[in-house]
Design a protein that fits this description.
With 144 residues, this protein is an alpha+beta fold. 36% of the residues lie in helices and 28% in strands. It has four helices and seven strands; from the N terminus they run αβαββββααββ. It has helices at 11-26, 46-63, 103-108, 111-122; strands at 30-34, 67-75, 78-85, 92-94, 97-99, 126-131, 135-141. It has a five-stranded mixed beta sheet with strand order 1-2-3-7-6, covered by helices on one side. Strands 4-5 form a two-stranded antiparallel ribbon. α2 links the parallel β1 (30-34) and β2 (67-75).
């Protein structure tokens, strides 16, 4: 069966999302994506948007048990990217950062989030992480 591809208007981001959907399908994880066609002329580089989406999706695919939701929206003059996923193991968050439980995890762990934080900082955005029944990561960027 042929699925309607995601269309953000940024081909490289569409490809990243499509590949994540394929990986999710292989792991029996439902990946739901909501996104508008993004306006051209965002201050955010296509490459940076791709890096944000790729890192968020990779982290979610690693942690998710059954479902992931990626929502990209333009709201109140901001670009909002929100990732939510359920989890098999509840992650530990301290001071808005994920914390590796075991020392051997901390070396390879967290590079994706560090890169996300650098991009958010570059655009004076906001990043918030909440963990309750699911993991919720929200990014607000003033890039319009």
């Amino acid at each position: 069966c042929k699925r309607i591809p995601v269309h953000t208007g940024v081909d490289i981001v569409d490809t990243v999302i499509y590949e994540a959907k394929e990986k999710a399908e292989q792991r029996n994880i439902l990946l739901m994506v909501e996104t508008p066609i993004l306006p051209s002329g965002l201050k955010l580089e296509d490459r940076e948007l791709c890096v944000l989406c790729a890192n968020l999706l990779n982290n979610a695919l690693e942690a998710a048990k059954e479902q992931i939701r990626l929502n990209i929206a333009i709201a109140a003059g901001f670009l909002m990217i929100e990732m939510q996923n359920d989890y098999t193991e509840k992650p530990v968050v301290k001071n808005n950062h994920f914390v590796a439980e075991r020392e051997q995890d901390s070396l390879a762990h967290g590079w994706g989030m560090k890169i996300i934080e650098q991009i958010v900082e570059k655009y004076h955005g906001e990043l918030s992480i909440r963990v309750d029944m699911q993991v919720s990561i929200k990014i607000l960027l003033d890039v319009l």
